[in-house]
């Protein structure tokens, strides 16, 4: 009987070859290697767990609390203060998760960085991004 390989062995977050921005008991933070914008950071659980829904309450709490700490660190590193932020995670491949290790994105945003930012994270399904009257009623 063959054993399935440990997913942590091939996990880029478990390798931890990053310089941390923040380190907590259950979570650490790094700059994203493929940033959406300057200062794009990730908060990552130390324990290899695939999604938010598999994380412990302690891990979830520290991820949430870490948002503010990492925001402060990122703002100190940036040459200008962001006008806004996107914060979120993808849970499962159908939602766009490409690394099966829980991580939360903290993405600095500036006025004019995209033509029309309305809808924010709703843009994951482009046809549903604009929910103004008359458009959402399909």
Describe the structure in brief.
The chain has two helices and five strands.
What does this structure look like?
This protein is α+β, with helices and mostly antiparallel strands. The chain has a single domain (7-128), classed as 2-Layer Sandwich (HIT family, subunit A). It contains 2 helices and 5 strands. The protein has helices at 12-15, 57-77; strands at residues 22-23, 27-31, 41-45, 84-88, 103-109. A 5-stranded antiparallel beta sheet has the order 1-2-3-5-4, with helices on one face. A hairpin with a 3-residue loop joins β1 and β2 (27-31).
Index terms:
5-stranded antiparallel sheet; HIT family, subunit A
Overall geometry: globular
Report how far the terminal alpha carbons are from each other: 52 Å
Helix content, binned percent: 10-25%
SSE run: HEEEHEE
What order do the strands of the largest sheet run in, or round the barrel if closed?
Answer: 1-2-3-5-4
Question: What is the secondary structure topology, with strand pairs?
Answer:
Elements: H1 12-15, E1 22-23, E2 27-31, E3 41-45, H2 57-77, E4 84-88, E5 103-109
Antiparallel strand pairs: 1-2, 2-3, 3-5, 4-5
């Amino acid at each position: 009987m063959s054993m399935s390989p440990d997913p942590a062995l091939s996990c880029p977050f478990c390798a931890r070859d990053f310089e941390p921005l923040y380190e907590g008991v259950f979570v650490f933070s790094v700059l994203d290697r493929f940033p959406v914008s300057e200062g794009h950071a990730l908060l990552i659980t130390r324990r290899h767990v695939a999604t938010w829904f598999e994380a412990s309450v302690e891990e979830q709490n520290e991820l949430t609390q870490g948002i503010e700490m990492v925001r402060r660190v990122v703002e100190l590193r940036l040459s200008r203060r962001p006008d806004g932020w996107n914060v979120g995670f993808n849970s499962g491949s159908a939602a766009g998760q490409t690394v099966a290790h829980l991580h939360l994105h903290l993405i600095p945003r500036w006025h004019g960085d995209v033509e029309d930012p309305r809808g924010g994270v709703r843009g994951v399904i482009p046809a549903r991004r604009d929910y103004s009257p008359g458009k959402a009623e399909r």
